[in-house]
Amino acid sequence: MARNVKNKENVQSIEALKGVFRRTLLYNDSLMLCHFILEENAEIPMHSHEEHQIGYVIKGRIKFITENGEFIAKKGDSYIFDSNEKHGAKILEYTEVIDVFNPSREDYK
């Protein structure tokens, strides 16, 4: 298969946290594309990272918590977190998201 295309079904998912499954799809030094499956009631603790993060909700609902408050992202919504912006999440129902990181996250390679 060409290095410029990858089907998510051909990528092994890893359970990054309880109920949080990540597939790291394609990346280079500048960008990384990840697919997440998030089980209902899973939680992502408050954290921050150097990489900028922008995401899109394919299905489901997720409540994000930031230092400035909370918001719910649902199917069709997109969201963004700047470099070092603290954020966490509570998964309200089975959810799938796509996240893009800039630059690529070394810990997700």
* Main sheet makeup: 6 strands, antiparallel
Spatial sequence of strands, sheet with the most strands: 1-2-3-10-5-8
Taking Cα atoms only, what radius of gyration do you get, to the nearest Å? 13 Å
Number of helices: 0
Q: What does the model show?
A:
- With 109 residues, this protein is mainly β.
- It has one domain (25-108): Jelly Rolls.
- It is 0% helix and 56% strand.
- The chain has no helices and ten strands.
- The strands form two sheets. The chain has a six-stranded antiparallel sheet, with no helix packed on it. A four-stranded antiparallel sheet has the order 4-9-6-7, with no helix packed on it.
- Strand 6 and strand 7 form a beta hairpin.
Question: What are the salient characteristics of this protein?
Answer:
6-stranded antiparallel sheet; 109 residues; mainly beta; single chain; 4-stranded antiparallel sheet; 56% strand; globular; Jelly Rolls
Layout of helices and strands, plus pairs?
Blueprint (H helix, E strand, L loop, with lengths): L13 E4 L2 E8 L4 E7 L4 E5 L4 E8 L1 E6 L2 E6 L3 E4 L5 E5 L3 E8 L7
Antiparallel strand pairs: 1-2, 2-3, 3-10, 4-9, 5-8, 5-10, 6-7, 6-9
Describe this structure in a few short sentences.
The chain has no helices and 10 strands. It is mainly β and 109 residues long.
